Recover the amino acids of this structure.
């Protein structure tokens, strides 16, 4: 069942109550009665829960709910309990805003007798129940996105990356790709302004630029992510996905986003100049653009496709999270390049190896190559050590370790010294020192 989006700010108190009644009905409450306004006595809705309990609901379509509302509802609950001594009576307060800390603390003191649902919880509840509500007076709606890729393309990125990891033949990854559209606004602008002091114009500034404001947090994107979107072509797609769950709504109105963009632009172009005053002293002046100095040339609401790949290799799970623009990706998380032992992130997949025993993908510092077959990688947690005189050799399997041990037992002492590289080079160094000593002795004797 799909409803038309409800714009929360546009509802009046009665419509808000009706919305809550509708939500509660979908949640499974029964015998829902909206009480007449004139005699609500601190409760707007009376309903029955799944265990037959009576629930009194107070609806507050306002920004802030304080302690008195809770006390009033508590009074109504007490009153109801006196009327029906056998009934269990509970309370609930639903607001489109937030509860004051004092209200939350008070509710805790009285033993959470009353369920508190704030605007955020209400929104989540609506999402769960597939009731679409939106905030804001001029809601931004668009079906444009940066050029997207298919689910298959997203999954293939895992296979392509995995192929570059050393030792990949043992496992075949299982991948599940997941798409979300994150709202944003692209803003292109010009700005020009002059800064004056008592000596006249000290700075004439002109520039232009582009920024992207994310539509959920209202914040400007990180600069490397903006560079990602601004480099190369700016191709867009039309979102055809019928599954509205994956398209996250804008949390801000157009005016809000424009205001955030202007604040970012002002911050970015504020600069300091020095100038010489009439008395020949050097001063510095901070030049701050004003809102009217900024000319917004383009304002394009656009969705950013955000893919998540859930990867399963052996008993290990890996995640990738990235924005796409056509065939380019900007990774937020790429666990195929993150060592499962030290968590360091490497630049390329070629720097990684996968352990055949545990399926951990590890960095160069946490992998050993089997000394016997000279090719099998093994993570440092599972490498099987074998200590010679001074050096330790590592093996991927007990079989290889056993074969090596047998060979080691079969060779003579000098071969063993040669095999243990540390012992070998130490003996060479030792012999060199003794040689030099003997040489100096010979030189001394022949000189005397
Ligand atoms: Zn590591
Ligand atoms: Zn391992």
């Amino acid at each position: 069942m799909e409803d038309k989006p409800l714009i929360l700010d546009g509802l009046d108190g009665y419509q808000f109550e009706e919305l809550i009644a509708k939500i509660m009905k979908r949640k499974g409450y029964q015998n829902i009665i909206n009480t007449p306004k004139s005699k609500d006595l601190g409760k707007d809705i009376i309903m029955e829960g799944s265990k037959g309990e009576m629930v009194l609901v107070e609806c507050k379509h306002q920004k802030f709910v304080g302690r008195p509302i809770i006390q009033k509802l508590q009074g109504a609950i007490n009153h109801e309990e006196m009327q029906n001594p056998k009934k269990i009576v509970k309370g609930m307060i639903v607001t489109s805003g937030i509860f004051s800390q004092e209200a939350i603390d008070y509710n805790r003191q009285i033993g959470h007798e009353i369920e508190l649902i704030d605007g955020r919880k209400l929104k989540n509840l609506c999402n769960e129940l597939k009731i679409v509500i939106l905030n804001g007076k001029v809601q931004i709606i668009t079906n444009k996105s940066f050029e997207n890729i298919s689910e298959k393309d997203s999954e293939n990125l895992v296979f392509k990356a995995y192929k570059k990891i050393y030792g990949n033949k043992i496992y075949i990854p299982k991948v599940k790709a997941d798409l979300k559209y994150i709202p944003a606004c692209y803003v292109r602008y010009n700005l020009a302004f002059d800064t004056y002091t008592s000596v006249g114009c000290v700075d004439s500034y002109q520039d232009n630029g582009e920024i992207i404001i994310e539509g959920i947090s209202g914040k400007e994107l990180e600069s490397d992510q903006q560079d990602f979107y601004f480099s190369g072509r700016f191709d867009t797609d039309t979102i055809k996905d019928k599954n509205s769950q994956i398209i996250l709504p804008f949390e801000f109105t157009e005016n809000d986003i424009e205001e955030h963009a202007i604040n970012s632009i002002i911050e970015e172009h504020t600069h300091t100049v020095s100038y010489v005053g009439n008395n020949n002293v050097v001063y510095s002046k901070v030049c701050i653009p004003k809102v009217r100095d900024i000319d917004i040339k383009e304002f394009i609401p656009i969705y950013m496709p955000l893919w998540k790949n859930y990867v399963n290799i052996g008993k290990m799970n890996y995640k990738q999270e990235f924005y796409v623009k056509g065939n380019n990706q900007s990774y937020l998380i790429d666990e195929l390049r993150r060592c499962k032992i030290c968590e360091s992130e490497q630049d390329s997949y070629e720097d990684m190896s996968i352990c055949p025993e545990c399926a951990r993908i590890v960095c160069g510092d946490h992998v050993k190559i089997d000394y016997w077959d000279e090719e099998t990688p093994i993570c440092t947690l599972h490498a099987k050590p074998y200590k010679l005189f001074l050096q330790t050799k590592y093996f991927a399997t007990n079989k290889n370790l056993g074969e090596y041990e047998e060979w080691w037992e079969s060779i003579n002492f000098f071969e063993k010294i040669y095999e243990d590289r540390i012992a070998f080079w130490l003996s060479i160094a030792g012999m060199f020192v003794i040689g030099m000593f003997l040489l100096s002795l010979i030189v001394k004797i022949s000189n005397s």
Notes: The chain has four domains: 13-137, 158-308, 338-409, 411-447. The mean pLDDT is 89.
